[in-house]
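[User] Once you have settled down, look closely at the record that follows, and write a paragraph about the fold.
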Amino acid sequence: MLSTAADTTSEFIDSKSVAGDTHLGDEDYNNRLVNHFVQEFNRKFKEDFTINVRTFRRLRIACECAKRELSSSLKSSIEIDSIFKGIDFYTSLTRAKFEELNQNLFQSTMKHVEKFFNDKELNKSVNPDEAMAYGAAIQAAILSGDTSEKSQDLLLLNITTLSLGLETTSGIITPFIKCNTTVLLKNPKLFQQILKINRK
């Protein structure tokens, strides 16, 4: 999960900062659903199918579909015929239950959002539903070499989402490009290689 603030007031699109948890993503929510339904199946049928890779994959696919359906519905159904030992698994998932299962993930996300904006006033000139599509369209135009009048003067100034560095002696990481630094850039630093001599 990453959030980006950008200045789009001119032909320069300048990414100002990025914040988020790079280890939190779609699979974390899917895993919560899968674990929930594995436990439900165990309670109902006293069977554990987690050792069966194919069965586990079928449930994961069904959970992904249910999660997507909850974006526009309050309730979703999961129906998997003969999921394990001939047992049909029919159940449902409400949006409220999905939010309950993932409450701490949402709270973690909100901490990053609040830290990112730090009480700054939001610019509401861009529809939030269109913001990502807007950015993706600009990036696609630049990468594809679009030479139309609207895109030929665009310059996208991107930034690093993580600090980049090298591990030096004593296991210390020495950053040479810090998070939220505009790329491309040069930042020369001198490092000396330490050779371990094997005397055997």
Notes: The CA atoms of residues 29 and 102 lie 7 Å apart.
